[in-house]
Design a protein that fits this description.
By secondary structure, the protein is of the alpha/beta class. It is about 30% helix and about 30% strand. Pfam families: Response_reg.
Length: about 290
């Protein structure tokens, strides 16, 4: 059996990656770690054939783990796939300089992840599959089995007190938890990235558990339970990238020809730094700045 280590601070993402790997590649045994420090400890005791790692994590980042890994003789040639919401050119170049094997942006599809694994594992994966006599599952099978992971209820988070809504703004739907509602005259923009599209939207409600955005109907919309990354500007040249999944889709108006759709994204990040960034944005959002 080949051994893969999955490293991400969000248990949701770790479970999704492990489930996809097990479905598509039954010859790969998966172990997981919640941050780079824990991964480093596991890698010192066990030899892994593949590392699939997030970038932004507490205690030790994915880049720091990669740097340490390439300094170890036994891991200098082992494939390392960076799976992260940081998809800008500068970060890709930085990871390549440190010896990353492949770079996969969040949100990712099971098919996209599978292709990266096949590319970096090459002959060793093919030989292992041939010896086992097993075939690869289809991407659709992997996704359907993974979908149950997305319905897991997030851990309870601190709630933001309710605020009076703007009279002309679309009414809020009940999706659980008290919210900070958009104050009169304020408008916070957000880009919500999916595996195949990006949704331009306005933040309507937000707390530490989820965000509800309003988007024009003429865009490409995701499906329920699709992975998502919400990009929110938290300061000058500062962007929070929050991982989540689509919890709810509904029309803003009770008319079939409504121009706007409401999308609720449940957050899955467990990184304290990301929650701190989100808290700062919520405070600014409530103040109407």
């Amino acid at each position: 059996m080949l051994k893969a280590l999955v490293v991400d601070d969000a248990s949701f993402v770790r479970d999704l990656v492990k489930r996809t790997v097990r479905q598509r590649f039954p010859v790969i045994e998966t172990t997981d770690a919640q941050n780079g420090r824990r991964a480093q400890s596991l890698m010192s005791r066990t030899a892994f054939d593949l590392v699939l790692c997030d970038w932004e994590m507490p205690e030790m980042s994915g880049l720091e783990l990669l740097q340490w890994m390439r300094q170890q003789p036994q891991y200098q040639k082992v494939p390392f796939i960076m799976i992260t919401s940081r998809g800008d050119k500068d970060h890709v170049i930085e990871a390549v300089k440190e010896g990353v094997s492949e770079y996969l942006g969040k949100p990712f599809s099971p098919d996209g992840l599978s292709k990266k694994i096949i590319k970096v594992m090459g002959r060793s994966l093919k030989d292992a599959m041939d010896r086992s006599g097993k075939s690869m599952a289809s991407p659709a099978d992997a996704f359907m089995e993974s979908a149950s992971l997305l319905t897991r209820k997030p851990e309870p988070a601190a709630e933001v007190p309710e605020r009076a809504d703007s009279p002309k703004a679309p009414s809020s739907s009940s999706t659980g938890g008290n919210r900070a509602a958009a104050p009169r005259g304020s408008m916070s923009l957000a880009s919500v990235r999916f595996a195949e599209s990006t949704l331009k939207s306005v933040v309507k409600d937000i707390n530490l558990t989820e965000v509800r955005v309003i988007a024009k109907r003429d865009q490409m919309f995701p499906g329920i339970l699709d992975q998502a990354v919400v990009d929110i500007e938290i300061g000058e040249n500062q962007m929070a990238r929050l991982n989540g999944y689509v919890h709810q889709l509904q029309a803003v108006d009770k008319r079939q020809d409504t121009d706007f759709v409401s999308v609720t994204i449940r957050f899955v990040d467990e990184d304290p730094k990301k929650l701190e960034d989100l808290s700062r944005f919520i405070a600014r959002f409530r103040s109407g700045r």
